[in-house]
Amino acid sequence: MKMSVALLSALSLFACGDDSKTPATETSQKVGTLATDVSATDMDGKTVRLSSYLGKNVVLLNFWATWCDPCKAEMPHLRRLYDENKDKGFVLVGISMDGPETVQGVRDVVKSYNLAYPIWLDQDSSIASVYNPRKSPPLSVLIDKAGKVVKVHEGYNAGDEDVLRAEVEAALK
Questions:
Q1: What whole-number distance in Å separates Cα of residue 34 and Cα of residue 24?
Q2: Which one of 44, 81, 106, 110 has the fewest CB atoms closer than 10 angstroms to its CB?
Q3: How far does Cα 17 stand from its chain's mean position?
Q4: pLDDT tens digits, 21-69
């Protein structure tokens, strides 16, 4: 019992959001299913659709928030992953889960971490309701070239970037 409490406490350090006992991988879009098309507004106010990437690219949806420290710890690794693979058919979409009270900080975080990949704003949680219903950042959803969800990762721990890198490389083959 003590070990379970300690483990849950430790895990909570690496993900932000609610403390529901249902893992995101059980409630998110299921691995092996076709990715659901969603739309959002990008940082320039333009409407964007996931379907513009599906079926031709490997796509990584990364849910994050300005107030999430594990998200920020993951960002340099995601930036590097994107830079190394963007010319190979890889698209990384950062999905800010910030609501009206914190969305004004998104540009500062993007600039601070020098993020060059697309950033979508999910202020109404419409995308999160499909892919991250617990609204627990960071959460990453990897979608293969066929448009199928192949992996879902919740939280971030040092070293997770190596696993994600290998999964992206495998999906690109």
A1: 17
A2: 44
A3: 14
A4: 334 444 457 888 899 999 999 999 999 999 999 989 999 999 999 999 9
How many Å apart are CA 41 and CA 52, to the nearest integer?
Answer: 14
Helix (H, G, I), strand (E, B), or coil: what is residue 12?
helix
Place of tokens 């409630």: 27
The full set of domains in the chain, from first to last, is: 2-172 (3.40.30.10)
Question: What are the structure tokens assigned to 17, written together?
Answer: 């959001």
Sheet holding 90-96, edge to edge: 47-49, 39-42, 119-121, 90-96, 58-64, 139-143, 149-154
Tokens 């293969």 correspond to 144
pLDDT digits (tens, 9 = 90+) for 131-142: 999 899 999 999
* Structure tokens given for 111: 């600039």
**Residue recorded with tokens 């879009």:** 29
**Cβ atoms of residues 122 and 135 within 8 Å:** no
Q: What is the DSSP letter of 148?
A: B
Interatomic CA distance for residues 117 and 95, integer angstroms: 11
**Gyration radius of the chain over CA positions:** 15
